[in-house]
Amino acid sequence: MIINLSPLQAWELMQQQPDAVLIDVRTKFEHSFIGHPVGAVHVAWKELPDWLLNPDFVPFVIESVPGRDTPILLLCRSGQRSLEAANALQQVGYTQLINIEGGFEGPLDDDKHRNSLGGWRFHGLPWQQN
To answer: What range does the domain containing 60 cover?
Structure first.
């Protein structure tokens, strides 16, 4: 089952369950230049320039997180790619999948800007840039 949590709820879960793994599924560019949660494992679900699915996504997660009952939190820009990635992991038997609603940057505001209504950064959760 895939559950949706807000960034604050996801952070709380990570504090309560230190074995939980946070996976940032955004592109290399997003991860490096826009920023990423501290301690997040990066493996792109889709990659630029063509936004093709990463054929190594599921094998990388299986290698990195062998326990199918390990809580896995997935994060992208706004919550859509992470949900797609969670569905792929559910198909190979992972049972504790958490999609972080609002992702890293949150939804667009009326001026078509992110980071002003929600998301990991908006809530002041630990993040860094390369």
So the answer is: 2-125
pTM > 0.85: yes or no: yes
Contact in structure between 31 and 24 (CB atoms under 8 Å): yes
Annotation says 76 is catalytic: yes
Q: Is residue 22 part of a domain?
A: yes
Report the number of distinct structural domains present in the chain: 1
Residue range 31-71, pLDDT digits in tens: 999 999 999 999 999 998 899 999 999 999 999 999 999 99
Q: Give the DSSP H/E element, type plus range, for residue 99.
A: strand 97-100
Catalytic residue among 25, 65, 75, 76: 76
